[in-house]
Amino acid sequence: MYSEKVLNCFMNPQNVGEIQDADGVGTVGNPRCGDIMKIYLKIEDNIIRDAKFKTFGCGAAVATSTMLTQMIQGKSIDDALQITNQDVAKALDGLPPVKMHCSCLAEEALKAALWDYAQKNQLTIEGLEPPKSVAEEEHEEIAE
Ligand code: FES
Question: What is the Å distance from ligand 1's center to 119 Cα?
Fold first, then answer.
């Protein structure tokens, strides 16, 4: 059912933990299962120097967190933004179809962390949308 890479990333997760002085932190939840992923980024000169995660979720979510944090380290923000959940699943030699939604957590958590970084530094990152929960909160504030 799972590829060797998925099993390895789940059994030996890398980059687990948090970055105390992170430049960007993103937390997202999967509405289908209630699992949660949090990603911490250290960014210098537009390059992701370090990435760590905490995932309260299934094995596929842990494996995709490991793979994504490995894939983005050393990449520019723009290059990291190009990485999709499909890319992460491909790097893991695939995920079972019923587990593809788990890989979306990784992509969304990365984008949420980059959004947090942009907000803290008053930057506009082209192609980066606010995380859905943030957009909804802002919308509610405006509506009140
Ligand atoms: Fe929740 Fe996989 S079942 S992220």
Answer: 28
